Amino acid sequence: MTSHYVATVPVKFTDNDGQERTRFQRVGAMFRNTRNGDGSEFFSLKLDFPVAVSELVMFPPSSKEPHD
């Protein structure tokens, strides 16, 4: 099982031959975590640079949230 994922943003550029290409710039990492109380999983996204926040934590949708 992967312990983390690299968070990237796509950056488009034109190479020396005039071809449009995409590179992926690292902006942080996402980690899988387990909650101590009930063992449920959640994810932490740690950013490599300061923005309004330096970490976002994602949880699976609850059963109360509407599904798309």
Automatic annotation (TrEMBL):
Taxonomic placement: Bacteria, Pseudomonadati, Pseudomonadota, Alphaproteobacteria, Rhodobacterales
The protein's name: Uncharacterized protein
Superkingdom as given in the UniProt entry: Bacteria
